[in-house]
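Lab notebook, bench 4. Still working through the backlog of constructs that have no structural model yet. Next entry is a single chain of 128 residues. Request: give me the structure tokens for it.
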Amino acid sequence: MPLIDEVRLLRRRATSFLSRALDSLNSGDYDLAVFLAEQSVQLHLKSILLEKIGDYPRVHSILTLASILKRLPECKDLAELLERRRLEARSLEDAYIASRYLPREYAKEEAEALVNFAREVLRHGELR
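Model written out:
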């Protein structure tokens, strides 16, 4: 698959995960909403790295991906957002782990905040 097609596929999946996160939020399934928001952000960041440097690490850490983005001048705004909102990024990472290994429930307010954070992240890095 050509690189640009892979980038578009990851972006489409990221957008779909965000859409499903919003659906889950609206239906009161807050745990799933947060998990889907994390998946959305993770895929979006990987798509940006793939577009900019031709690859991305096979990791699940938003903050690890953010540390790589920070080195790219054209990703300065996104890197600053992720640094400024580090608590939300870390909370999304925790949601990824908790979904598999820990019993964790999210309140409506937590889920809303994290889904909105994911929405903000996805506003950065549109394909040119």
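Notes after review: The chain has a mean pLDDT of 94. Residues 3-122 form a domain with the Four Helix Bundle (Hemerythrin (Met), subunit A) fold (CATH 1.20.120.330). Flag for follow-up if needed.
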